[in-house]
Amino acid sequence: MNMQKPTLPKGTRDFAPEVMVKRNFIIQTIKQTFENFGFLPLETPALENLNTLMGKYGEEGDRLIFKILNSGDFLKDIQPEHLAEGYKKMTWRISEKALKYDLTVPLARFVVMNQGKITFPFRRYQIQPVWRGDSPQAGRYREFYQCDADVVGTDSLICEAEIILMINEVLQNLGLTEYSVKINNRKILAGIAQTIGMPQAETELCTAIDKIDKIGKQKVEAELAERGFPAEAIAQMQPFFAIQGDIFEKIQQLKPLLQNSEIGTKGITELEQTLELVKHFCQSDNFISQNHLDFDITLARGLNYYTGAIFEVKVHNLAIGSISGGGRYDNLTGAFGLPNVSGVGFSFGLDRIFDVLEKLNLFPAHTHTTTQVMFTNFDQTAQNYALSWLQKTRKAGIKAEIYPQPVKLKKQLDYANQKNIPFVVLIGSEEMEKQMFSLKDMQIGTQQQFHFEEMIAYIKKNSNNLV
Amino acid sequence: MNMQKPTLPKGTRDFAPEVMVKRNFIIQTIKQTFENFGFLPLETPALENLNTLMGKYGEEGDRLIFKILNSGDFLKDIQPEHLAEGYKKMTWRISEKALKYDLTVPLARFVVMNQGKITFPFRRYQIQPVWRGDSPQAGRYREFYQCDADVVGTDSLICEAEIILMINEVLQNLGLTEYSVKINNRKILAGIAQTIGMPQAETELCTAIDKIDKIGKQKVEAELAERGFPAEAIAQMQPFFAIQGDIFEKIQQLKPLLQNSEIGTKGITELEQTLELVKHFCQSDNFISQNHLDFDITLARGLNYYTGAIFEVKVHNLAIGSISGGGRYDNLTGAFGLPNVSGVGFSFGLDRIFDVLEKLNLFPAHTHTTTQVMFTNFDQTAQNYALSWLQKTRKAGIKAEIYPQPVKLKKQLDYANQKNIPFVVLIGSEEMEKQMFSLKDMQIGTQQQFHFEEMIAYIKKNSNNLV
User: Fold this and answer.
1) Which end of chain A is more exposed for a tag (fewer CB within 10 A), N or C?
2) Residues of chain B with CATH 3.40.50.800
């Protein structure tokens, strides 16, 4: 039998109540902000057909997708000679389903399957787990939540502007103050590649300069040389590396550098129009002047996928990667036979945000507790008396419980302490006689007698419970 | 390449926004009620080790568990002779992870892994998807949500009473009025088996009489005969079948029938004590007198697992199975080497509840819409003017969006209609000049001019948006 000490699969986690409350705070904040911007919830199953996912994330992605073994006798049609064909071919013989790898391919599949029913532009958000067979390491898991928002079916730059505002709003609502929403445009990157005479090597250029934050300019230049960029091309990069100042100064410096590239100039125009729209949105409440928006021509986000705006969020003074990224794409559903569907979207990483709020001590007080009051249990008489008051406390909207057995008071108080329950009600014969309740504040240790309604008001006033 | 028209795996579903809003209403109601009763959230991963799950649900369960193919070259150590050993043995060679099948075994695993850290009694709830390779049919899916609540580590009957109250509270909060919370006790069933001289056949007795609602008394008797129950035993069942009346009358009729069975008598005592506690909880607000609580000696819920109270919820006048079930167990964690952990809990089926509310038309108005107001887009001037007011509308806590392109007004209004957006703002040159806003009520078709603050107040007052 299975009498082993149980364990969890590598790279997966349980979320105990004290962690769940904090995760729920983040999810709730994101959800409310997304809905405030008119995005609607979508959920897709964990299981997708294997052929929906395979080939969408490159060879490495194909390898990291978790495949589900077919139910029943999956060996029925397997012959010994099939073994020799290798595991990749075998996968298709014994598996037809897989766990979703991100929320974008399922969105594309949903859009194609429901194109007749969806009202476009389709503004949807999706907060769900995804699975990747990566080697687990600090901050990287095999099962983790993504929080995506996309507008599908329009190329209006209003959507870019709204996404910038919405990202900013989420971060503000989470209590963050020191961060940059970085933007760039894939067309600007194409323009740079063109201008330095390497239009065919745009992808390599992006991959290399994307690392400048981590490895510095010199190493990026070395990598470009290694990737076959001639010395003149690298020399021509210098004016681009030298761009500096605020977002408008950078744009002014970039314009003449890209004047001979049509696509580069288009990228700058898109960026300027987006900023113009952000200004119209914000008016006096000027988001841009708060220095939260930054233009970074080295922002590339590897993926070939993006065709216009690119976004990323960096929290200052923390050794943690970006907590959000996204951009404009022109071909969401091409792989499923529906061409020319344009959209723009981004994704928050729940774990990264969690780590940031934890390190900066930004979780609000109400995420440190859930149950607001515990009734103690002296003996059967007091217990039976307490039950109806417990129920009335709950009806008053207060999260409440009773210790289910009349064990020693110290044990009951330890329980309340360990669960961070801020108040404890003590009911003895005196309290029953006077119809009063002794309320103990578990943080400061004081004890006060109240009539019932007073007690309810006191608990409500003094427990920061908003969940 | 994959240019196939995409599909979903059998038995899985997408939840489009209009469905998600309703599902979220159910989940939110359950969550709030559970937390009001002092239950705290737990989440466990979708992935569990294969050996955590296998052997816990019987042979049929083992077959229905979805197994994950190992990452990388899973054929590395497979020899042709392994094929001949059959797929069951092969499963263990090429798979070490699986998708969780319910929320109870993961709870048991969590309790064992964290026994040193958990504060007992452990009151946790868990609302997550589970996966089963059953044949999909109406109302049965391969990926579906369970909503569990359990108290682990105490045998206090207060927990049984609280669970009865909590189930009732959830149903009330969902707007249900015609339902029964049915209770029974496994010890009473054991007592019946003993009394009719078939103590060894308790499981068979439970399996058969559990179906009486569906197939009727005669067929149950036929099944008992088939299962080897002698005619005298079946004859001795008659007084049990004849029990009727309200919950207290039934108990009084049952008592003499079980007087020679120690375990049966213990079951009755537990039931009576639980009812006594429910009464203490409710006082004047008498839950029992509302006829929502019913004692049903044919309620058995198949599982051998339960050792005390058994619960089930039946909605009247609907051809739909039970929407909730649960009970007391004495050996949650035995399979993981930790004996004698007692607990009591139950589970709501999200899909069943959804179907019930849909059929009874009980979803509240605010679940029919999410975005509260849409700003139309006449031309670039009006659009840029509108953006700052849109942002102010959002800051006022209203869910709002703008149509992102200045297309024909009819198309914009169709979009709002299809998305059930109740209000639309029209801004033309007249409105801009007067700093007024024309608000169109999409349901009744009227249009009114407002100053901004008036408009905000009007939308808040007239859109039932609580989410």
Assistant:
1) N
2) 370-462
**B205-223 average pLDDT score:** 91
- Tokens representing A34 are 């997304």
Look at residue A161 and give its three-state secondary structure: helix
Question: What pLDDT sits at residue A139?
Answer: 83
Give the contacts of A283 (CB within 8 A, at least 6 positions apart). B388, B391
Those residues of chain A that have pLDDT short of 50 are: 1-2, 466-467
CA-wise closest residue to A425 among A439, A405, A408: A439
User: CA A461 to CA A444: how far, in whole Å?
Assistant: 16
The stretch B351-368 carries a mean pLDDT of: 91
Contact A68 B99 (CB under 8 A): yes
Alpha-carbon torsion (A228, A230, A235, A237), positive or negative:
negative
- Spatial distance between the Cα atoms of A210 and A207, rounded to a whole number of angstroms: 6
The residue among A287, A307, A25, A27 whose CA lies nearest residue A181 is: A287
What is the token pair recorded at B270? 């537990």
Nearest-angstrom CA–CA distance, B116 and B121: 13
CATH 3.30.930.10-classified regions of chain A: 17-359
Residue A114 CA, distance from chain mean position: 26
Distance between A198 CA and the closest CA of chain B, angstroms: 29
Query: Between chains, do B119 and A415 touch, taking CB under 8 Å as contact?
Result: yes
| Chain B nearest CA to A358, separation (Å) | 19
Q: What is the pTM (predicted TM-score) of this model?
A: 0.94
Residues of A in contact with B159 (CB under 8 A): 404
CB atoms within 10 A of CB B317: 9
Answer whether A388 sits within 8 Å of B282, measured CB to CB. yes
User: Where residue B181 falls among pLDDT bands split at 50, 70, 90?
Assistant: very high
Q: What is the pLDDT of residue B301?
A: 78
Report chain A residues whose CB lies below 8 A from the CB of B76.
87
Q: Do A17 and B110 touch (CB under 8 A)?
A: no
Edge-to-edge strands, sheet with B400-402: B400-402, B373-375, B423-426, B437-441, B447-450
DSSP-assigned letter for residue B137: B
Sign of CA dihedral B219, B225, B231, B232: negative
d(CA A12, CA B328): 30
d(CA B401, CA B9): 34
Q: CATH top-level class for B370-462?
A: alpha beta
Nearest to B133 among A24, A71, A83 (CB): A71
**Which CATH homologous superfamily contains domain B17-359?**
Bira Bifunctional Protein; Domain 2 (3.30.930.10)
Higher pLDDT, residue B336 or B139: B336
Distance, in Å, from the CA atom of B46 to the CA atom of A43, rounded to the nearest integer, reads: 16
Supply B237's token pair.
């069942």
Phi first, then psi: what are they for A143, rounded to 5°?
A: -130, 120
> Has residue B377 got a pLDDT over 50?
yes
Q: State which residue of chain A sits closest to B99, comparing Cα positions.
A: A68
The total of other beta-carbon atoms located within 10 Å of residue A9's CB is: 20
Alpha-carbon span B248 to B284, nearest angstrom: 18
ipTM, 2 dp: 0.93
